[in-house]
Amino acid sequence: LAGQQKLTHAYCTETRPYNQGSRLTAYELVYEKIPSTLITDSMASALLAQQPDKIAAIIVGADRVAANGDTANKIGTYQLAITARYHNVPFIVAAPSTSVDLNTASGKEIHIEVRPAVEVTTLRGPVVDVNSISKDSNDVQFKKIEENGTMVVETVAVAARGIGVWNPSFDVTPAELISAVVTERGVVLKED
């Protein structure tokens, strides 16, 4: 889309708890020089409500596509599909054809792994030089280990000790919420 000048701006979610969106998707968008904005997972509905004319579609990946079109993807995908439906925005799944599993009849048959609680109650990342933090910029300086130049990475707690945690790694989006599935082999549109 960006190469065809059809993508003027992309929004990506942080994809908690493992932050694939802020660590990987945001990196790729910046690397490819695609104008983009990182938002928290819980901001998507507000974004569509406040800026409906700026969002042409929601595009997500899929780890598995069942025979009936249900898809399993990172947790939070289902809520994006509900938001898209409410705001009449196309919800498109883009995945390699190897993700299509015709031996799995529906999303009900997809096993959803529950991940360790510590992934929700802590954050891990490079240590930032606090003197480089500015409320007007996200351009921070990282502390480095002097000997080999690698970044210092630490884990910090972000939740109350003793809180219960439910941490499924994926959710299943029902086919009826999906506008189209796109693979390298082509596009399957939802039948009306």
UniProtKB/TrEMBL annotation:
<dbReference type="Pfam" id="PF01008">
    <property type="entry name" value="IF-2B"/>
</dbReference>
<protein>
    <submittedName>
        <fullName>S-methyl-5-thioribose-1-phosphate isomerase</fullName>
    </submittedName>
</protein>
<keyword id="KW-0413">Isomerase</keyword>
<dbReference type="InterPro" id="IPR000649">
    <property type="entry name" value="IF-2B-related"/>
</dbReference>
<dbReference type="InterPro" id="IPR042529">
    <property type="entry name" value="IF_2B-like_C"/>
</dbReference>
<dbReference type="GO" id="GO:0019509">
    <property type="term" value="P:L-methionine salvage from methylthioadenosine"/>
</dbReference>
<dbReference type="InterPro" id="IPR011559">
    <property type="entry name" value="Initiation_fac_2B_a/b/d"/>
</dbReference>
<dbReference type="GO" id="GO:0046523">
    <property type="term" value="F:S-methyl-5-thioribose-1-phosphate isomerase activity"/>
</dbReference>
<dbReference type="InterPro" id="IPR037171">
    <property type="entry name" value="NagB/RpiA_transferase-like"/>
</dbReference>
<comment type="similarity">
    <text>Belongs to the eIF-2B alpha/beta/delta subunits family.</text>
</comment>
